[in-house]
Amino acid sequence: MNSDIIYWNPKSCAHEKEEVYGEKWLLFIYHNFWGKLSLWALVKRAWFSKWYGWKMDRRSSKTKVLPFIEKYKLNTNEFLEPPKALKPSMHFSSANSSQMLDLLNPIVIKSFSLQMADTL
After folding, report:
1. Half-sphere CA count of 98, side-chain side, radius 13 A
2. Distance in angstroms (rounded) separating the CA atoms of residues 94 and 100
3. Whether residue 108 has pLDDT greater than 60
4. CB within 8 A of 39, min separation 6: which ones?
5. Inter-residue contact 83 to 64 (CB < 8 Å)
6. CA–CA separation, 27 and 81 (whole Å)
7. Which of 21, 43, 85, 93 could disulfide-link 81, Cβ–Cβ 3.0 to 4.6 Å?
8. What distance in Å separates the CA atoms of residue 56 and residue 65, rounded to the nearest whole number?
9. Which residues of 21-43 are buried (b: 16+ CB within 10 A; e: fewer)?
10. Each residue's pLDDT tens digit, 29-48
């Protein structure tokens, strides 16, 4: 099965393969019996999300940032802070989750309103 995502890059005038974060895990979970079973039994559960969030909030997760930026060729000029200044992913901790929801609520409400208007 060919799971590559190919896109046209106008800057290089060529087709390129998009790198997908966690591609091996995604292929396992969605295209393998044992992967589908583990998705249902483990990954879809709240405790797994909490555990993974806790894991990414650890100081050691900072060591994953620069390799991620390099592998996926992110443009660091678009970052608000230079990558070296990044702290562990505290932006998504439970203390800040209400602030994130406050930011997302208008977007979700507007999107829901537009969807409802389309159905009428």
Report:
1. 1
2. 10
3. no
4. 29, 30
5. no
6. 33
7. 85
8. 11
9. eeeeeeeebeeeeebeebbeeee
10. 888 999 899 988 888 889 98
- Between these two residues, 116 and 41, which has the higher pLDDT value? 41
**102 falls in which pLDDT band (50, 70, 90)?**
low
HEC readout, 21-54: CCHHHHHHHHHCHHHHHHHHHHHCCHHHHHHHHH
Distance, CA of 10 to CA of 42 (rounded, Å): 41
Residue 3, CA distances (Å) to 23, 33, 43, 52 in order: 9, 17, 22, 26
Lookup: tokens for 80: 């608000």
CB-CB contact of 15 with 8 (8 Å): yes
Q: Provide mean pLDDT across the span 13-28.
A: 87
Ordered DSSP codes for 74-91: --GGG-SS-GGGPPSSGG
